[in-house]
Write a structure and sequence with these properties.
It catalyses: 2 reduced [2Fe-2S]-[ferredoxin] + NADP(+) + H(+) = 2 oxidized [2Fe-2S]-[ferredoxin] + NADPH. It comes from Achromobacter kerstersii. Keywords: Nucleotide-binding, Oxidoreductase. This is ferredoxin--NADP(+) reductase. GO terms for molecular function: ferredoxin-NADP+ reductase activity; nucleotide binding. By secondary structure, the protein is α/β, with parallel strands linked by helices. It has 2 domains: about 100 residues, Beta Barrel (Elongation Factor Tu (Ef-tu), domain 3), CATH 2.40.30.10; about 160 residues, Nucleotide-binding domain of ferredoxin-NADP reductase (FNR) module (Rossmann fold, 3-Layer(aba) Sandwich). Helix content is about 20%, strand content about 30%. The protein has 8 helices and 11 strands. The strands form 2 sheets. It has a 6-stranded antiparallel β-sheet with strand order 4-3-6-1-2-5. The protein has a 5-stranded parallel β-sheet with strand order 9-8-7-10-11. Strand 10, helix 8 and strand 11 form a beta-alpha-beta unit. The radius of gyration is 19 Å and the shape is globular.
Length: about 270
């Protein structure tokens, strides 16, 4: 017997393929009672392959790409070859069901930081998801002097949401923000296997270590001014956390705001 009080059945409304057989996003309906903070993740479920019309038995964590004020929920995913979940999620079509636990999770939220200073959002791959939720929320733009969004991928095709990110400066709801500071957002797309104009083909951790990330952003990684979020694969996070720790960045503790927040996205 299943306890369906822990989750709701939602309906897929849209699928977008970024890289065939590799990267996709999907939108689903949202339960009226479901609330979350930008940067949090949901646990989403599917029935087992042996009982496709049965109750959900497979669950995975996905950060919300959507902002809290949006009517639906959006998720961004890589297809894990031979995985039990993501290949089936990628095959969903509008009208199909996706189950969502009623409780959101995660602490990659701006509540971790004191307001003010510069907000650095460093992501590898699909770790970008949580930052999109943050940046779709107008309150984020008002809380910090500058926002630096760094997205590390292998190929240019994997720079999902790039068009949306580059259009934020023209959004009516952000007109006042960008009128006051046209450089409010510094977007650094980094592809390690393809050349992008003005961008190095390097790992994010290499750019942190040799100082080039600060040169590209035109801002210092100063623990007195910078608040940094890290989201991506565990190897990148471990290396970046060590490098930043050596420079004085540390997570908050016991109610004391820090200047570093980290979440695995793997």
């Amino acid at each position: 017997m299943t306890d369906d009080s822990k989750y709701t059945r939602q309906t897929v409304t849209q699928i977008h393929t970024w890289v065939p057989d590799k990267l996709f996003s999907l939108r689903v309906t949202r339960d009226d009672a479901y609330t979350f903070l930008p940067g949090q993740f949901a646990r989403v479920g599917l029935p087992g392959a042996d009982d496709p019309h049965g109750p959900p038995t497979l669950w995975r964590a996905y950060s919300m790409v959507s902002a809290p004020h949006e009517s639906g929920l959006e998720f961004y995913s890589i297809v894990v070859p031979d995985g039990l979940f993501s290949p089936r999620m990628a095959q969903l079509r509008p009208g199909d069901a996706l189950y969502v636990e009623k409780t959101p999770y995660g602490f990659l939220t701006l509540e971790r930081f004191a307001p003010g200073g510069d907000l650095w959002l460093l992501a590898s791959g699909t770790g970008l998801s949580a930052y999109l939720s943050l940046l779709r929320d107008p309150a984020t733009w008002r809380a910090y002097r500058r926002i630096i969004l760094v997205h590390g991928v292998r190929t240019v095709a994997e720079l999902a949401y790039r068009e949306e990110i580059e259009s934020w400066g023209a959004r009516p709801e952000l007109a006042e923000v960008f009128a006051a500071d046209p450089q409010k957002l510094i977007y650094l797309p980094i592809a390690t296997r393809e050349a992008l104009p003005g961008m190095p083909q390097e790992r994010l951790t290499t750019l942190i270590a040799d100082g080039r990330l600060e040169q590209l952003a035109g801002l210092p990684l100063d623990p007195e001014q910078a608040k940094i979020m890290l989201c991506g694969n565990p190897d990148m996070l471990a290396d970046a956390r060590k490098l930043l720790g050596e420079r004085g960045f540390k997570p908050g503790r016991r109610g004391i705001p820090g200047n570093l927040a980290v979440e695995n996205y793997w």
